[in-house]
Amino acid sequence: MRLAIMQPYLFPYLGYFQLAASVDKFVFYDDVNFIKNGWINRNRLYLGGAVRYFTIPLAGASPFLKIRQIAVQPGTAWKKKMLESVRHAYSKAPYFKTANDLLQATLDSGETSIAAIARTSVRMVCAYAGLDTQFVESSAIYGNEQLSGAARVVDICRREKASDYFNPPGGRELYSEDVFAAAGIRLHFVQPRLNAYRQFAAEFQPGLSILDALMFNDARAVRELVQAGRAA
Fold this sequence. Notes:
- By secondary structure, the chain is an alpha/beta fold.
- Helices cover 37% and strands 18% of the residues.
- The chain has a 6-stranded mixed sheet. It has a two-stranded antiparallel sheet with strand order 3-4. A two-stranded antiparallel sheet has the order 5-6.
- Helix 3 (96-107) packs antiparallel against helix 8 (210-216).
């Protein structure tokens, strides 16, 4: 069984989905400390002729709280502003309605925590693209918050009876193949492959939110972009 573990990100870039597509089960790491200025509540799109962030404002965010404990700012003003900004930038994109509907459904999901909203964004995109990866939350199952680093990852892999653990390339600095091998687990790293597709930018801008790819590609093409990632 192939497993990956990552924090829940808001409409993340293609590489995140390439990791998810490489495994049977994907664990949202939602009971680790919140990281400010990361990808949990924001991402990037081509807005107003440049690459800019779109952000969900948070209430009481702190690196001393777990991701699942962070609430989004109440009210609807920020939602309207975000949707209008995306509409203004992408309304002429060929698949604007589909992508915008996914964005609006995520924002209108009724969830009040950023972890839940980010998870919803990932699940909705995967369902649209026809990916059958199973998703679970670390806070709901394992009860091993006393562990950290590789020890906790290995513990989750053991509990899930995972034979293979997949990680982004950045994990090479964090995880030792020998540690996983000692637990009977093969360690892999998924190298993102950000193939070019049509955009409004004059030169292709890689690494934007998956929403950008959804604006210009149908479900089959998005699935092909996602499945381009390679594991080593």
